[in-house]
Specification:
The complex is a heterodimer. Chain A is mostly helical. Helix content of chain A is 63%, strand content 3%. Chain B has a domain of 99 residues: Cupredoxins -  blue copper proteins (Immunoglobulin-like), CATH 2.60.40.420. In chain B, the strands form two sheets. Chain B has a five-stranded mixed beta sheet, with no helix packed on it. In chain B, a hairpin with a 2-residue loop joins strand 1 and strand 2. Classes of the chains: A mainly alpha, B alpha+beta.
Chain lengths: 474, 147
């Protein structure tokens, strides 16, 4: 006989994924397609001449009512975010009953990242910190100019630093499912962002120090859509996916570091759920009572697990940088071109890795997002967990079988392969911009191809590993 | 940034934009339930019965992964040497097993996926494991594969 304990089962389970590992035949098919299509892409797009015409936008202006509706939607979005933060402070602290963890991790981080990668620079228009500061600027001209000059050599290091902290919060921090701590973190970030805007000027800080603007902006270059504002009216432009990454702007060394940090944290997130990482957890959990962890470092078990994760994250970050540097050096060596330097190459080619990151993001998080958005339905009726029922959906329970495994597999592998092909295409075009001679271009592509195939294989491998629940809760 | 307007009229461009929006935002969510094989299929009459023993807060490594096909009926019989609260994720079933009283979990595996069965507390004690502050231990995994 068994006893079902009512209500108990709701106690945890935020951020669950029930994905089955990729079957072997699909993994091999994906890997084979990756390698084969890489060569096909390079051959098809190989051109004898290196003259490039910039890719044209198809632009159109929407109706005036679209602009007005967009303005209203902007404020609704911001209002929703503010309410979520309030819910974080005042509402039920159980992460499954409070709307804030879902909003931060699913709607904001995963959802907005994917929306930026596929739908363009939407974040620029609904950035809460930007919009609120603009209102402050209109109210008092004192705020329109910054106090100090932002030095160019500082680059986007503030954003890099914030992204590092944010990644640590996402992967290791125990407060990531505690609504109150999340709300506090949001307030702290708001304070820092507005402070930065006050010190250096709104636009300067946005482009350099507002982490989400920089990250989502980089991802938006991949999108086939772009919204510009000309003479106070929006203009929507379309062009093929990933071509935006080829725009000739110089990426500073700090931006290279930022892109690599983004890639490494996304990959580490997936790696942490594999059985290979579970061995590290296992070693800690089964360490004997006189192990150096407890005697010399005086750690609690949970602290040791977290420390291992932090260390793993650091190692991944350093590893990605080293491997990328290695491949940039290889490209230079293979091409035997005397006019190009490694720094220039590394700055040019870093954006070509973004399609693979976006593809992996889709493959890894799409079920997570589907389940999370389904979980949002009852939460919208009862955001604070106080027993409200605003739209009558509070009793809706999420069906764990919402996304079938076959659908998930096919979407994952298709996304990874398509992302890889786009990355190879972009890298090839970048090589055509970087090197003058055809032979240099072709020879330099070998290391780049190896790097991309390797990175795609890592993504496929992570997808084919069975998900192992972490030793940490939440 | 250079851009040049192509020779499309406003109507054609708007149509292209609509087609793009429809493909991107409508087809994907609509295809989700159609392609989702996660919903119930004809259940089979045979019941698979698996016996599991929890000894010293662990399950024998050979039985840590249960693989079934979607639609199969499953009976998991748990025996333990210590009182334990178990929780099956996904299906969201929680139950308590006491020593000397085998607990049976009957399940129709209609949802496909990989689900953890976790022990939430042993002997009524919220902190489990040898060191303080452990929370849940995953004892085994149930994998339900589509047909």
């Amino acid at each position: 006989m068994f006893l079902v304990i009512p209500g108990f089962a709701v106690a945890h389970g935020f951020g669950q994924r029930y994905d089955l590992p990729l079957p072997l035949w699909l993994f091999v098919l994906g890997a084979g397609a990756t390698v084969a299509l890489s060569f096909v892409t390079v051959l098809v797009f190989f051109r004898k001449s290196v003259n490039q015409t910039p890719s044209a936008w198809i632009e159109m202006r929407p109706h005036r009512w679209v602009t007005r509706v967009a303005g209203i939607v902007r404020w609704i979005v911001i209002g929703f975010l503010l309410l979520s933060v309030v819910a974080g402070f005042l509402g039920d602290q159980n992460p499954v009953r409070n709307i804030l963890p879902v909003v931060v991790w699913i709607v904001w981080w995963v959802g907005l990242a994917l929306l930026s990668a596929l739908g363009g620079n939407v974040y620029e228009f609904c950035n809460p910190w930007d919009v609120i500061y603009q209102s402050i600027e209109r109210w008092h001209p004192r705020f329109r100019k910054g106090c100090w000059q932002y030095r160019e050599r500082w680059g986007v290091w503030p954003s890099w630093f914030f992204l590092l902290i944010f990644s640590w919060m996402e992967l290791v921090w125990d407060g990531r499912t505690v609504p109150e701590k999340l709300a506090l973190a949001a307030c702290l970030y708001s304070f820092l962002t507005w402070g930065g805007m006050y010190c250096f000027g709104r636009q300067q800080w946005l482009e350099k120090g507002e982490m989400f603007h920089v990250v989502f902006g980089l991802l938006a270059r991949f999108a086939p859509l772009r919204i510009r504002v000309i003479e106070n009216s929006p203009v929507i432009g379309f062009r093929p996916c990933a071509v935006g990454l080829l725009e000739r702007i110089t990426i500073s060394p700090s931006a290279v570091a930022l892109v690599l940090l983004l890639l490494s944290t996304v990959s580490f997130d997936g790696f942490m759920e594999t059985p290979l990482w579970a061995r590290v957890d296992f070693l800690i959990l089964t360490a004997s009572a006189d192990s150096w962890l407890w005697t010399t470092l005086h750690l609690q078990e949970v602290e040791a697990l977290r420390g291992a994760r932090t260390l793993g994250l650091m190692i991944f970050i350093v590893l990605f940088r080293l491997i990328y540097a290695l491949f940039c050096h290889s490209m230079l060596w293979f091409s035997s071109d005397n006019e190009v330097c490694v720094k220039d190459l590394s700055q040019r080619f870093v954006l070509s890795l973004i399609p693979i990151a976006v593809a992996y993001h889709i493959a890894h998080y799409f079920t997570f997002m589907a389940l999370g958005l389904a979980a949002l339905i009852p939460l919208l009726s009862d955001p604070l967990g106080w027993g409200w029922n605003l739209w009558g959906a509070a009793s809706y329970s999420v069906d764990s079988g919402l996304v079938g495994p076959q659908y998930q597999w096919y979407v994952a592998v298709s996304a990874v392969v398509i992302g890889h092909v786009l990355a190879v295409y972009v890298a090839h075009k970048m090589a055509q911009q970087a090197f003058q001679k055809i032979s240099h271009i072709l020879r330099s592509q070998w290391p780049m191809l190896c790097l991309m195939v390797g990175y795609t294989m890592l993504s496929l491998w992570i997808l084919s590993q069975p998900i192992v629940e972490s030793g940490l809760s939440g | 940034m250079k851009y040049r307007k192509r020779n499309f009229g406003y109507k054609q461009r708007f149509l292209a934009f609509l087609v793009w929006v429809v493909l991107g935002t409508v087809v994907m969510p609509i295809s989700l339930p159609w392609m989702s094989f996660g919903f119930a299929q004809t259940p089979s009459a045979l019941v698979k019965r698996i016996a599991l023993r929890i000894v010293q807060r662990k399950i024998d490594p050979a039985s840590r992964l249960i693989r079934v096909k979607q639609g199969e009926a499953l009976e998991l019989v748990f025996q333990t040497d210590e009182v334990v609260d178990l929780h099956l994720h996904g299906y969201n079933r929680a139950f308590r097993v006491k020593p000397g009283e085998p607990a049976v979990l009957t399940l129709s595996a209609h949802i496909a996926g990989r689900f953890a069965i976790e022990a939430h507390r042993f002997a009524g004690n919220p902190s489990i494991g040898l060191k303080p502050k452990s929370n849940e231990i995953t004892l085994l995994y149930l994998e339900v594969y589509p047909r």
